[in-house]
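haha ok so turns out i had the wrong file open the whole time. this is the CORRECT one, sorry everyone. sequence first:
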Amino acid sequence: MTLPPWSASEDAGVKYVGELAQAWALLEPMQRWVDAAPGGPRPPEALVQDFLQREDPYPVGTAVFAARWRPGQWGIGVITARVDDDEWAVEFLDHKDIVFRDHAELCPALWTAG
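then structure:
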């Protein structure tokens, strides 16, 4: 079965992980201390990298939209593994291909894998 490419915002994954990182920094005591220090708060990119080193926004089994090989095209997939701080293995549901995507190439799907 071939599914049509889904339309997803090019910055959906960046926004999703960025918002999680900001919420995390407000709740995590060490992060609050770092951001309250002179020269703080950190730029958003640095905050996201710190967050990704400590937390996993896409645990195994998470349903996601993942960027295809063409800009603006996204497919439905499931996270099968986290392979680095900012890289996940994704299995597309229509082709069973395994691809590797970073947080900018993923966004949560509005359905649950089952």
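The radius of gyration is 15 Å.
again sry for the mixup
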